[in-house]
Fold this sequence. Notes:
The chain is mostly helical. The protein has one domain (16-139). The protein has helices at residues 16-61, 69-103, 106-139. Helix 1 (16-61) packs antiparallel against helix 2 and helix 2 (69-103) runs antiparallel to helix 3 (106-139).
Amino acid sequence: xxxxxxxxxxxxxxxxxxxxxxxxxxxxxxxxxxxxxxxxxxxxxxxxxxxxxxxxxxxxxxxxxxxxxxxxxxxxxxxxxxxxxxxxxxxxxxxxxxxxxxxxxxxxxxxxxxxxxxxxxxxxxxxxxxxxxxxxxxxxx
Length: 141
């Protein structure tokens, strides 16, 4: 059985009301993503310029942390990179969906929805990981 790539999966069209709802959603996700970009940039600047001071502060509270400072900073930069990528996906969704609706470009609209799909996949993976970690710590395994 051969499938036609041009045939839609479901025969739904974006009408005026759905377009307005998606534009409003794109507006809010753009706002949230810009706030997220600012937050990620501030945390990155703090780590870059105050990383040594933060390490010294933790060294006073927990002796032996100096040896693991590089590992801790690497993990912090990794978390910031993942958060930055997720914020970028939200921004990409908001701009592409808005442009796709305004210009009636189906490919651009689909690319925006694809960015949102990837965002939700990453969020779901982290939610499942956090549930597993919390349940393991609950049972002390």
